[in-house]
Amino acid sequence: MQETKAPEHRKRVRLVIPSRSDPFLRNFTELVGGPLGHRSAPGIVSPGFFTVDRVLVILTVIAAMTGIVLKNYCRTNGWETPGQFYATCYSDFPELFRNRGLGDGAFPFITQGALFEYPVLMGLIAGATALLVPGAGTGNPRVLGYFDVNATLIAAVWIITVLATARTNRRRSWDAAMVALAPGIVLAGVINWDMWAVCLLALGMYFFSRNKLILAGVFIGLGTATKLYPVLILGAVLLLALRTGRIRALMITAGAAIAAWLVVNVPVAAANPDGWKYFYQFTQERPAGYSSPWFAFNLVAGRLGWNQLQAEAINSLALDLFLVACVLIAVLALTAPRRPRIAQLAFLIVAAFILTNKVYSPQFVLWLIPLIALARPRWRDFLIWQAIEALHWGAIWMYLGQATSGGSTQHNIDMPYYVLAVVAHMLATGYLMVRVAWDIWDPSSDVVRRLRVDDPHGGPFNGAPDWLRLDLRRPAASLLPWQKAATGD
Predict the structure, then answer these.
(1) Can you tell me the distance from the alpha carbon of 422 to that of 435, in angstroms, rounded to the nearest whole number?
(2) How many angstroms separate the CA atoms of 253 and 191, rounded?
(3) Which of 75, 177, 295, 416 is the most exposed place for a label (fewest CB within 10 A)?
């Protein structure tokens, strides 16, 4: 029987095709013959060589090459002020290579006395990539080599991020095209090493969606050791654990994340405590960063003669506002008629952190792109948001060109226009938060949940019944654990 039995094949999943399901993209398909026909069955009929994953890789490579071409002025003429701002090709890689001892052999967190203002794993990446550049010193050829090494690795990390996002929900693999083609990543992907943290979180969410909670926690912990924001996803896991009563999922994921973070940080903290503490001290003491709401407020206050906010006051206000936002997100998660999806809560928490934090570097937009592709894959809103972020991108470099050199007037913008660009970026991000919150409150508007789908990213929470649900208007209608237990008795 075994010899004559037909081989078993993995069941193929019918894919959601953007040209069919997204009204905005449908308008752009006329040049290639219109949207895909309804009688075709993508995902069931083999596409040959051009599978979804391969097409996404090709798109990512094209986008990564475009990003490098946009930096060609600095690659040719060097990263010097104010030219690097006016040409919008600034990157932290050359700056840190020259001014943090990387080009002279210093290895962050390993070399005693070498201070580095980033978390441990990012410092190790910065030091390891410096070892890959031949020669010695900080001359222009080595600076260019350091940039190219890191840009190449970030392109590879970008591809992994796209594939992880695509496979988190195989039925909607094409949503990962948002990550592959995102203007925000094209413009800001090689400013810093943030893409590494984005990739680690994407892998963590992929493994979580597959119920591999230990691996999910490990990648979340490694992402937190690279950039602190990946730890925020544990807030989403906490809320869903409370909503469903599946506390074990939270304990395993959080425990693995903490263990992974400790494995990276404890040896460094023991061997070089001053170097390890410097990042946290620097974060606490630094003033408001460019493009944060606090920096914009201080600019306006300085122009109007008001008192400006100092670092201590900003730390307190930023934390208070973020906590208020988290409370509101928790209320939404526990009172919504239907349990939210994990990607929706993760996006809301990270976006709230970005809008209230005292620092907003241009590359922080990378944090939100894979999350919005999972939380609300609507191309119209995505492209409008990215266009506004691109305007802010140009505004900050023109403002920095003026602030650092007082360069040619034709390349500068006055402070009010820069502040307007910051406000526009905040409003666009806030708009996406409102749309995601509305999808949570009214699941019929959530495109991911069509055709009886619950939470394809949710892992242990996918399809789970409510354990705790609050009704603020009719408290008696709330679902409480002890009431359910009493009913069962």
Answers:
(1) 20
(2) 31
(3) 416
Q: Are 102 and 224 in contact (CB under 8 A)?
A: no
Copy the structure tokens of residue 450. Answer: 């069509």
* 459 CB-near residues (< 8 Å, 6+ apart): 208, 209, 210, 211, 213, 216, 249, 342
Check pLDDT > 60 for residue 199: yes
Which 3 state secondary structure label does DSSP give 357?
coil
Residue 75 has pLDDT above 80, yes or no: yes
Q: What angle do CA 444, 198, 283 make, to 5 degrees?
A: 115
The pLDDT confidence band at residue 478, using thresholds 50, 70 and 90, is confident
Q: What is the Cα–Cα distance from 116 to 122, expressed in whole angstroms?
A: 9
- What is residue 267's predicted lDDT score, i.e. its pLDDT? 96
451 burial via Cβ count (<10 Å: 0-12, 13-18, 19+): exposed
Tell me the backbone φ, ψ of residue 450, rounded to 5 degrees.
-75, 160
465: which residues sit within 8 A by CB, 6+ positions away?
244
Percent of the chain predicted with pLDDT > 90? 72
Mean pLDDT of 276-298: 92
Return the pLDDT at 83. Answer: 87
Query: Tokens 């990213």 belong to which residue?
Result: 457
- Residue 472: exposure state from Cβ atoms within 10 A (0-12, 13-18, ≥19): exposed
> d(Cα 298, Cα 30) in Å, to the nearest integer?
49
89: its two tokens: 């090709």
pTM confidence score:
0.92
CA separation for the pair 188, 105 (Å, rounded): 27
pLDDT at 409 over 70: no
Quickly count: other Cβ atoms within 10 Å of residue 210's Cβ.
13
**One-character DSSP codes across 67-78:** HHHHTHHHHHH-
- β-partners of residue 479 are 469
Burial of 221 (C-beta count, 10 Å sphere; 0-12/13-18/19+): buried
Per-chain mean pLDDT for the chain? 89
Establish whether the linkage from the previous residue to 18 is cis, with ω within 30° of 0: no
User: What confidence tens digit (pLDDT) does each residue in 104-117 have?
Assistant: 999 999 998 889 99
Phi, psi at residue 36, to the nearest 5°? Answer: -60, 140
Give the distance, in angstroms, between the CA of residue 463 and the centroid of all CA atoms in the same chain: 26
Q: How far, in Å, CA of 156 to CA of 198, rounded?
A: 13
